[in-house]
Amino acid sequence: MTRPGPLDNTHGVPLGRPGWTLLASSELTGGAFELFEEARPSRGGPPPHIHRERDEMFYVLEGRYAFTRGADELEVGPGQVVFVPRGARHHFTTLEAPSRTLILIAPAGLTEFFREMGDRIGAGATPLEAMTALSRFHDAHPVG
Description:
By secondary structure, the chain is of the alpha+beta class. The protein has a single domain, classed as Jelly Rolls. It is 17% helix and 37% strand. The chain has 3 helices and 11 strands. The chain has helices at 26-29, 111-122, 127-134; strands at 13-14, 20-24, 34-40, 49-50, 55-62, 65-69, 72-76, 81-84, 90-94, 99-106, 141-142. The strands form 3 sheets. It has a 6-stranded antiparallel beta sheet with strand order 1-2-3-10-5-8. Helix 2 (111-122) packs across helix 3 (127-134). The protein starts with 12 loop residues before the first strand and ends with a strand. The model has no long low-confidence stretch (mean pLDDT 90).
């Protein structure tokens, strides 16, 4: 197991993807997890997808979200948590804007995926097109 890094005195590192900030890196946590903040100024969300090797947890800071996790349909707001175990089909949509959520990925390993998604979307790809192209290299796989 990798040893955790020193305390991080920063207030987060922008990922180059609008609204995304890396709060705790793989280096900081010894690979145990990554923690991101996502701020969405408008309604939207990712396409349905799975992570085969990672669990994902969302903590809503602001706004309201509609989540689909497997067969579950959930509407959540500030202070609520949604846990998505590895292998579970999931997606979400913001119901009101602006919205903000903390996203924990365990084990770590999706920082580059999120950066590359931002690059591709910024170049004009849809989220589904970007995720489909990146799924060959990262643990994020679109599903119908």
